[in-house]
Every structure is written in structure tokens, then in C-alpha cells.
Write a structure and sequence with these properties.
Blueprint: H1 9-61, H2 71-82, H3 88-108, H4 112-130, H5 142-157, H6 164-171
Helix pairs in contact: 1-3, 2-3, 3-4, 4-5
Length: about 170
């Protein structure tokens, strides 16, 4: 008499069904994620552009933004006195236009790679200039660091399926 348990055909069938259900649900999940990925990426790009726009518009209009009474003057000060770059007012205006107009362009996916690359360079510059003096909390460098990585990701991936870049590409 054998001491090993006998596996009944119904047990084998139940295990096969469970395995099949698991594979089917995993395949369904993977399919759903694949279908949702372009929409998720478009939303990421849209929100990124909107956040960028909210930082550029106050500079453009020379209105207060959060704790900054004059964000354009703050940008000029950063470029001139911290980064020690020439033509600070012109560079500040370039950054302002990149954030305000570029933010809208990123949101709709127009000129995505070029604009995102410019934003990545801007945010890396800010992170480098202010890194030694800014902590990770309370007005820290986490914002420009995160924005730099997101911009680099968007620059690498382009506009995506739901973008004006894609629409223009199809028309050409």
C-alpha cells in the first residue's frame, strides 16, 4: 500500500482551471494596461505642461506666484547672481516663454521633444545652481529635479499617440 496521496482527476481539473483563470486574468490586465498606456502618457504630458505653464505665466504677466512677489525678478536674480550668466533679462524671458508657451505646447503635444529637452536643460541648470543651498524639504530642489526627469522622459518618448505631433506626422 502506497503512502503517497492519490490525486483525483477532479483535483487536477480544479488546478488546471485555476491556472487558466490566473493566466486569463493576467492577460486581460496586460491588455487593459496596454490600451490605457497611451491615455496615461497623454495625461502625464498634459499635467506636466499645465504645471509648467503655471510657473511661466506669472513671470510673463509679472504677477506674484506663491511666496514670490515678482517671479520674473527672481529669475533674473537667479540667472545673474547665482548662475553668473550674461544677459540675465534675456535669458529670464527665454525661460519664461519656455515655461508659459512651452507648457501649453507640451500639454497639447506640439514640438514635444524639442520643448521637453529645453525644459530638461532648464531644470538641470536650476538644480545644479541651487542644489548646494536647497534642502530636500521646504522649498527644496525636489521640484526641479522631478521636472528635469519628467522632461527628459517626455523628450525621449515624444508626443505619443494623443498629440498634435502625431496628427501632423500622419498628415505629412
Amino acid at each position: 500500500m502506497s503512502t503517497s496521496p492519490r490525486i483525483q482527476p477532479r483535483q487536477i481539473e480544479a488546478k488546471t482551471i485555476q491556472s487558466h483563470r490566473h493566466a486569463t486574468s493576467r492577460a486581460a490586465w496586460n491588455h487593459l494596461c496596454a490600451r490605457a498606456a497611451p491615455i496615461g502618457y497623454a495625461l502625464l504630458r498634459l499635467v506636466f505642461g499645465a504645471v509648467l505653464f503655471t510657473h511661466g505665466l506669472p513671470k510673463l504677466l509679472r504677477t506674484s506666484h506663491g511666496s514670490m512677489a515678482d517671479p520674473m525678478a527672481g529669475s533674473i536674480h537667479l540667472i545673474e547672481n547665482v548662475m553668473h550668466l550674461p544677459a540675465a533679462p534675456a535669458l529670464a524671458m527665454l525661460v519664461t516663454l519656455l515655461e508659459a508657451i512651452g507648457g501649453v505646447m507640451l500639454a497639447v503635444g506640439l514640438g514635444t521633444r524639442l520643448i521637453a529637452l529645453g525644459v530638461a536643460v532648464e531644470m538641470i541648470g536650476i538644480s545644479y545652481a541651487l542644489g548646494p543651498t536647497w534642502p530636500w524639504i521646504d522649498r527644496g530642489i525636489e521640484y526641479p529635479v522631478l521636472m528635469a526627469f519628467l522632461a527628459a522622459y517626455i523628450a525621449a518618448h515624444g508626443g505619443g499617440r494623443w498629440s498634435l505631433d502625431r496628427l501632423i506626422e500622419r498628415k505629412l
